[in-house]
Amino acid sequence: MRKKIRAAVVGIGLAAVTVLATGGEATSHGYTDSPLSRQKLCANGTVANCGEIQYEPQSVEGPKGFPSGGPADGTICAGGNSRFAQLDDPRGGSWPATKLTAGRSYTFNWRFTASHATTDFKYYITKNGWNPSSKVTRSSLQSQPFLTVPYNNQRPPSTLSHSGTIPSGMTGRHVILAVWTIADTGNAFYACSDVQF
Predict the structure, then answer these.
(1) Which of 37, 71, 72, 109 could form a disulfide with 191 if both were Cys (CB 3.0 to 4.6 A apart)?
(2) How far apart are CA 10 and CA 139, in angstroms?
């Protein structure tokens, strides 16, 4: 009996090691915490009724290639992942917003639970006149990123900051979409941050 139990325990241990060893891509996750992203607001308890994302803010992973590819309109903040659909809910425009000043430099910060070979980081912002009570779509975003940071297939450390200038002339509430594109998979990570000018 003891031999059977011991064999079962060893078998379970080997299965766990195999899952961990083959899950390298799945452990490579990250999110923005400056400005505070919607997933971070859920994880730190600032916003309630967030579903599963509160336990794994680093997991908003979807297809890369944005804006020509990537998640469908209306599912961009969740990376097209229905498990995290609460991130796409505009909540009547009531997501807590980080105060920013248009035309000024700002430091964007990412946190990573594991690194991955990276193509680049891109930052998009909604157009003036965007309705904060609506979901984020490609047509609601400026067509070009206001900041692109090439990363040349390097792996980021556990935290990484980029400085860039916020577009001038921005007024009212907006969303900044940060996209972390992975070099050696078909995916990218998405983070929406609500901001107020």
Answers:
(1) 37
(2) 54
**Residue 182 belongs to domain with CATH number:** 2.70.50.50
> pTM to 2 decimals?
0.86
- Domain with 44, as residue range(s), is 27-196
4 falls within a domain: no
Report yes or no on 43 lying in a domain: yes
The domain tally of the chain equals 1
C-beta separation of 189 from 61 below 8 A: yes
The answer to whether residue 19 sits within a structural domain is no
The total of other beta-carbon atoms located within 10 Å of residue 195's CB is 22
Within 10 angstroms of residue 56's Cβ, the number of other Cβ atoms is 16
Give CB contacts under 8 A, 24+ apart, made by 77-80: 77/38, 77/135, 77/136, 77/175, 77/177, 77/190, 77/192, 78/53, 78/190, 79/188, 79/189, 79/190
Give every CB contact of residue 49 below 8 A, 6+ residues apart in sequence: 86
Q: Is the bond preceding 67 in cis, omega lying within 30 degrees of 0?
A: yes
